Amino acid sequence: MLTRRHFTITAAALFSQPLAGFANAAPTSKRSSWDAWDAQITPADFDPATTNPWGLHRRFLPQRVEARSNLKVGDIHVDSVARYLYHIDGQGTAMRYGVAIARGNLYAPGTFSIRRKSKWPTWTPTPSMIKRDPHLYEQHADGMNAGPSNPLGSRALYLYRGNRDSYLRIHGSPNPGSIGGRASSGCVRMVMAHINGLYENVSTGVTAHLHPAEDQVTASS
Fold first, then answer.
1. Cα separation of 203 and 210, whole Å?
2. Beta strand pairing call for 93-98 and 63-66
3. Collapsing DSSP states into helix, strand and coil, what is residue 58?
4. Tell me: the pLDDT tens digits for 78-99?
5. What is the pLDDT of residues 154-204, one digit of tens each?
6. Ranges assigned E (strand) in the chain
7. What are the extents of the domains in the chain?
8. 123, 141 in Cβ contact below 8 A?
9. CA–CA gap between residue 68 and residue 49 (Å, rounded)
């Protein structure tokens, strides 16, 4: 006679393994939506130097500033104390943008190469992020589709040490109110409408210099 226990064991053997093709799908970025998303996150009559629906301090709006002549054209410098990102051009000047950096000891200064760039990227939290803040990240362990609410926002520049991905990014953020502060889990955040302009002028292979933050400068002085 078949018992309930027999049925339970048999059913588990038959149905407990996921079928091929039914595993969780990888996150996607719907290319046909990119233009609509860009329009959604770009204010009407957008002027980078003056448009400010986010209520940022005016110093965090994009500005062209003088740059030292010894800085390499194309490189990026992140002044983590003032919360500025500088992109060096060939005219003795740089474009300056406001940024947010990582909170606490999650900020990792250093010299990196930008080996990859992506429009409307997908995002998957790292295992260390999930372990550190499971209430924030565990729900996204399988990744998150691209879109205006994705933590990487509209554009991302991927930072490498040699040939190894550092898992640090310079990216747009759906939380523009964090600009000027320390908020991320390691990356450098920008307003999405701002990084869209920067992105077009950054070439892969250039160097990104993430300079020490205020607590690191104090500790080493």
1. 17
2. antiparallel
3. helix
4. 999 999 999 999 889 999 999 9
5. 999 999 999 999 999 999 999 999 999 998 888 999 999 999 999 999 999
6. 63-66, 76-79, 84-88, 93-98, 101-102, 110-119, 155-161, 164-173, 182-184, 188-191, 207-210
7. 101-220
8. no
9. 22
Q: What is the rounded average pLDDT for all residues in the chain?
A: 88
- What's the rounded Cα separation, in Å, for the pair 99 and 180? 6
- Report the run of H or E that residue 52 belongs to, with start and end: none
Q: Which two tokens stand for residue 71?
A: 């800085």
| Half-sphere exposure in the Cβ direction for 56 (13 Å, CA) | 27
Residue 104: phi and psi, rounded to 5, are 55, -140
Q: Are the C-beta atoms of residues 88 and 73 closer than 8 Å to each other?
A: yes
In the beta sheet, which residues pair with residue 157? 117, 170
Q: How many residues does the chain have?
A: 221
Q: Which one is predicted more confidently, 19 or 30?
A: 30
| DSSP 8-state symbol, 123 | B
Answer for the pair 72, 90: CB distance below 8 angstroms, yes or no: no
CA 206 to chain centre: 17
pTM for this structure?
0.85
- CA 124 to CA 69: how far, in whole Å? 39
Nearest Cα neighbor of 174 from 211, 97, 121 is 121
For residue range 47-72, what is the model confidence (pLDDT) as tens digits?
Answer: 999 999 999 999 999 999 999 999 99
User: One-letter amino acid identity for 173?
Assistant: S
Q: What is the CATH number of domain 101-220?
A: 2.40.440.10
CB 106 within 8 A of CB 186: yes
